[in-house]
Amino acid sequence: MTNNNQESTLEFQVVENATILPCEYKNGKSYSGIFDAQDRLVPDSLLVRKDLFGHDKQVILAKENYALTKMIPQSNLNDTYIFAGYLTGHYGHFLIENLARFWYIKQYPQLPIIWIPFTGMINQNFKSWQKEIFSLLKINNPQIIIEKPTSVKQLIIPQPGCGIHDYFYLQQAQALIALKAENPQKGRKIWLSRSQLDPKRSLSSVDNEKQLEQILELQGWFIFHPQEHSIKQQLEMLVSSEHIAGFQGSAFHTLIFLDQFKAKINIFRRRYLPNQQIVNDTYTNIAKTKQLKQTEHFVSQTKIRERTQNYGASVYLIHSYRQIIDLLNNED
Amino acid sequence: MPTNLSQLINIIASKKNTKNYLEIMATDETFFEVNIPEKTAVNPYFNFNKSEPETEHIKCSELVSDIFFNELDQGIKYNLICLNDVHNFEPTLRDFTNSLIHSNKKTIWVINNTLPPDIYSSLKDKKEALKLAKQAGNKQINWCGDLYKLIFTIHDFFPALSYSTIKTANTAQTLVWYGKRVLMPRFDDFEQISRLDYFTLQKHLDLMLFMPQPKALNLIYKSIKPEHFVTT
């Protein structure tokens, strides 16, 4: 898929007598897929991400040997359904990947939608914040979570409207608008904090963010911990802000729900990649399509802990607070 | 206006003819008042414009101390080291051990904020401390954090160092210097020290080795150990 943030029209395909295989985790990889009546894989049914340097990373692989073993569907759905994607409980991935087909789903509120739970999501219901997002977006389609091989009489597979580090279509952006932004209130500066996220559950953290926040507070910034608030409360906090900033994180993706957002946005990268050229990036793609006034910065930092299974997050140490404060003050 | 801290540093510097000085988490009110020919200030966010005081002999490094020490030439040694606006045990312990590599046998450390005046001031998290103090009707506190644990750590795990603590109006400053003590650990358990609270601190206040400033300075000048631990 080429980087296309703007006007192109998204497409969909209809698969008759499709077979859906649930996600299976084997040897560190996830396997799943949707197959047509001739047992051929539908490539758009898999999940592909790009990394920051433009390389493809196949996240969901085709369930191997399906055509040979001819797994018998254990359930039949005799109607028309829309494939929504691979359901995950991670906030950022839910917003970018799970809502990626909502540009189509919103047009057909009467059609039921189908989710394949991502590895580790089996037997889980929707999280409260996911239900809240469906409600904000006025999504009332019946929803089905597939946990065993299932045949579907007619399955519509819309092209994803956005992809990690890849593209964010205008059509998708418009489908996700839940609230019109208000005029920015002078002096309303919000720091989207990651300092109180559970390190075991987040991907990365900044070791000295709390100390930085003490200085930011003295400079008039409000330190906001999004995970402590409902999505509605988060939008209320952001909707009339003049300036928002923080370390790169999913909280910035919440802006996809706002229309005509005028605030200045500063995103500080958590990684320092002095010798690597970023090709494409989710935050930039969203900002381009939504015409956000967003700037991204690299500040000096050192990775002081690698991400591990026991601890969770990678931890970074910011070298100087001055660099961040000066960059923010230059924007005000 | 010289502070208690800068006055104390200047007294030591003048008596010991100190040539160079390192201040971790430096503040303008202390750093500018210290009269030592070569000075280095470290703070990730100075409360002054760092280019103003900088000269060939005065350096201001606007970095977190971990990175400062990481980049510091191992051959550089300081005669007087002040851990000033520090409040938390673990990062200050790291500063302290980092600074040992940049010390010589005559180096003296001054560690600020080693005695919290009340329970609120002893909490690790400043925001939490201020919030709870306010709830209890205390409008202002002198937040020191849990730095007192560093003194207990020095007591139990650094028997090659001597120390004494001087009380001030709102807190205390601990002086540390090279001088062997008999090892008589009180806790002998790093985890136990790490989990100490204000009330346990009160039970073990004797470990702070409080003494009046003249007596503490006299110990340093003579480089003898506090009488509690006279050995060898």
Descriptive account of the structure:
The complex is a heterodimer of chains A (332) and B (232). Chain A is an alpha/beta fold. Chain A has a seven-stranded mixed beta sheet with strand order 5-2-1-9-6-7-8. Chain A has helices at 66-69, 91-98, 102-105, 128-136, 170-175, 209-218, 231-239, 282-290, 321-331; strands spanning 12-26, 29-35, 48-50, 56-58, 60-62, 75-87, 113-117, 143-145, 150-158, 162-163, 167-168, 179-180, 189-192, 204-206, 221-224, 243-247, 258-259, 264-268, 293-297, 301-305, 314-318. Helix content of chain A is 21%, strand content 32%. Chain B is 33% helix and 19% strand.
- Output the number of helix runs of chain A: 9
- Oligomeric state of the chains in view: heterodimer
Stretches with pLDDT under 50, minimum 5 residues of chain B? 227-232
Q: What order do the helices and strands of chain B follow? A: HEHEEHEHEHHEEHHH
Q: Which strands sit side by side, in order, in the main sheet of chain B?
A: 3-2-1-4-5-7-6
Largest interface: pair, residues per side: A-B, 14 and 11 residues
Proportion in helices of chain B? 25-40%
CATH fourth-tier homologous superfamily of chain B: Vaccinia Virus protein VP39
Structural class of chain A: alpha/beta
Give a short account of the largest sheet of chain A.
7 strands, mixed
CATH class of chain B, named Alpha Beta
Total beta-strand segments of chain B: 7
